[in-house]
Specification:
Radius of gyration: 28 Å
Number of strands: 13
Length: about 625
């Protein structure tokens, strides 16, 4: 089999792949025979026998599925979660007062307003993009990718992700890359595409998936457009990005996303600021801004300028021109609720679903905001807290401004809005949220032009990456919320944890399904003694439920509670299972410092003061451990 172009891959996909068979419940041959007999006899007793057999068989099948999930079958776990979370008929409200054709027309108009530029035509942008590509030509030599590069990137792709219009899946690409004959031919096709920019024709069209943002959408604005492209296309993009993106990353004092950063950076910074200002009785105002549209509205010219500015004269001109070619006009085809087709050709924004989209958007916003906070006019506004050095942070499309004066905050909001408009972005004014602590005593409402800014009532909270922050409550607010999430996760997965299986496997499953609710951010938050105790009690209760420790005959509830919890404690110690409080404290003590003498994280800087310095050049513990804002004392 020759692999000359993408048509050969498509033929391989058609001849050697098929949709994955569902593992849902199916009647056994005995039940099918009983159904046939009942249809012939038409007796109620025979139909009762069918229902009884089906009920018994379904109960056995459900128990077997839970045991297989407990043993590590994640395909069955996803199937079970889909059954639990499936919401049928969510699109019904959209068709309640209009026909399917009218709805499809409204969705098309809404998406064109978001994803198509109103200032220029698609042909004008294609001409501008061609100029960017031609001006990026250099004399450097393209370094071909290797099979190891291809296999490495394929291992990072989800094998069961949705396939695009060409029908090529990740599993097929893995098998081809592992074949001694087809692997080198696939590699040759990839290098030819990147070097010549002769992109396959099938890549020009992508599926359009419309996902509901809310439980019951009422209009096109409640639908999120997702681009489902070819897995082969994603593979080539990942290979190019593995070379280009590391060269584009720069140190940032405002970004909490991207390589080497995570949600704990932002959560830890806000948490520490709240604790410091409360301790020193210092006023604090935190404002959350939301970027409207984000991926769909960012100007492609700004993305192209950033690519050229960061990648020129870096020896990757071929990769640069390939990435620029990804900004060309593409076509989206999908179905609106009701079955009518929606077609559009976006010439603005970044494709949601492409492997490079999230980091490219973050880099664009970071370049704008980093330039903003370093300019003289921003500095002339003054620092909200002396010697702190932090007045603005962002995570993707969420921007947070730290202030102590309301009037100055309003000025900063308008400045940030004008700054983002340079890239075609605007703030969603209706989603702006401002909270202040109890030590703030200034005005709480201001009108600037057509915009009215208002500080929320005392006790109100704003969401910081999903966690509620109220500057008026105690420091354990976020810890209690994480405990509540862990408790909800334990209840939601009780059927899996109580299935027949080894106890150690159940504990391992708990670390994945329950501990994941707090493990990535726990080290960035304040945990009181009572919070840690509550977390340990939750662990004991979850283990007791999973182990099936029941009350014996004649045993009181108090005696059963004491006996079962003591038994679980003994079992955890005997099997070297760490308590959840220990994991939280390990995260806190490990993350609040800097490793000395290599990667050994046991030796940490002990002097920690309240001054927060955020920099991407700080040394990290390791790539697998959650990272948080590093706290330094000033000499």
């Amino acid at each position: 089999m020759e692999i000359v172009d993408e048509d050969d891959l498509i033929e391989l996909a058609k001849s050697h792949t098929k949709p994955r068979t569902s593992q849902k419940y199916q009647d056994s041959p005995e039940i099918k025979e009983a159904i046939i007999a009942a249809k012939v006899s038409k007796l109620p007793a025979d139909w009762k026998r069918v229902h009884r057999l089906r009920k018994q068989h379904r109960r056995l099948w459900a128990g077997s599925r839970l045991s297989r999930i407990l043993a590590g079958d994640w395909d069955l776990y996803r199937q079970l979660q889909n059954e639990k979370k499936r919401r049928r008929g969510w699109w019904g409200n959209l068709l309640a007062e209009q026909g399917s054709e009218d709805l499809a027309a409204r969705i098309s108009l809404h998406l064109k307003e978001k994803m198509c530029s109103s200032d220029r035509s698609a042909d004008v942008w294609e001409a501008e993009l061609l100029a960017y590509i031609q001006n990026s030509h250099e004399d450097d030599v393209f370094m071909p990718f290797t099979l190891l590069d291809v296999r490495t990137e394929l291992q990072g792709m989800k094998c069961r992700s949705a396939v695009g219009p060409d029908g090529i899946g990740v599993h097929l690409l893995r098998e081809i890359a592992s074949d001694d004959t087809l692997g080198p031919r696939l590699l040759g096709l990839i290098n030819h595409i990147v070097q010549s920019r002769e992109l396959p024709h099938s890549w020009e069209t992508c599926f359009l998936a419309l996902l509901a943002k809310v439980k019951l959408p009422t209009g096109p604005a409640d639908l999120r457009p997702i681009c489902v492209s070819s897995a082969f296309h994603k593979l080539v993009n990942r290979l190019v990005c593995s070379r280009a993106l590391p060269l584009m990353r720069q140190g940032s004092s405002v970004s909490c996303c991207g390589k080497g950063r995570q949600a704990a950076d932002l959560i830890g910074a806000i948490s520490r600021l709240r604790d410091i200002t409360k301790e020193w009785a210092h006023p604090l105002i935190v404002c959350k801004l939301d970027v409207a549209g984000a991926f769909d509205k960012v100007e492609r010219s700004k993305v192209a300028e950033l690519l050229c500015r960061r990648l020129r004269h870096k020896g990757v001109s071929t990769e640069l021109r390939y990435l620029l070619a990804q900004l060309a006009v593409h076509h989206l085809v999908g179905n609106a609720p009701g079955g009518k087709q929606v077609c559009l050709s976006p010439d603005n924004g970044i494709k949601q679903g492409a492997p490079e989209s999230a980091e490219l958007f973050g880099l664009v916003v970071d370049s704008l905001l980093s330039e903003l906070v370093s300019c003289r006019r921003w500095g002339d506004l003054g620092q909200p807290i002396a010697e702190l050095g932090v007045d603005l942070l962002f995570y993707q499309d969420d921007v947070f401004i730290i202030e102590t004066e309301f009037g100055r905050l309003c000025k900063r909001i308008n400045i940030v809005d004008r700054c983002l408009q340079q890239a075609g972005l605007t703030l969603a004014k209706g989603k702006t949220k401002i909270v202040a602590n109890c030590h703030y005593a200034g005005p709480r409402c201001a009108r600037v032009g057509d915009n009215t800014f208002r500080i929320s009532d005392e006790g109100d909270s704003l969401k910081v990456l999903g966690l509620s922050f109220s500057l008026s409550r105690d420091a354990s607010e976020q810890a209690r919320e994480l405990i509540a999430r862990a408790r909800d996760a334990a209840a939601a997965h009780k059927d899996i944890l109580r299935a027949p299986g080894a106890w150690l496997k159940k504990v391992k499953m708990m670390s994945t399904l329950i501990e994941a609710q707090f493990s990535w951010t726990a080290g960035a938050l304040h945990w009181s003694k009572d919070d840690l105790h509550a977390l340990n009690v939750l662990q004991l209760h979850t283990c007791r439920s999973a182990f099936g420790l029941r009350r014996t005959a004649g045993e009181s509830w108090a005696d059963w509670n004491q006996r079962s919890l003591r038994f679980v404690r003994l079992w955890l110690v005997s099997n070297d299972v760490r308590r959840w409080s220990e994991k939280v404290l390990t995260l806190q003590h490990t993350l609040h410092g800097t490793p000395l003498g290599g990667v050994d994280s046991s030796s940490l800087v002990g002097h920690v003061l309240f001054v927060i310095r955020i920099s991407s050049t700080l040394p990290m513990l390791n790539d697998s451990s959650p990272k948080v804002v590093v706290l330094y004392g000033m000499s």
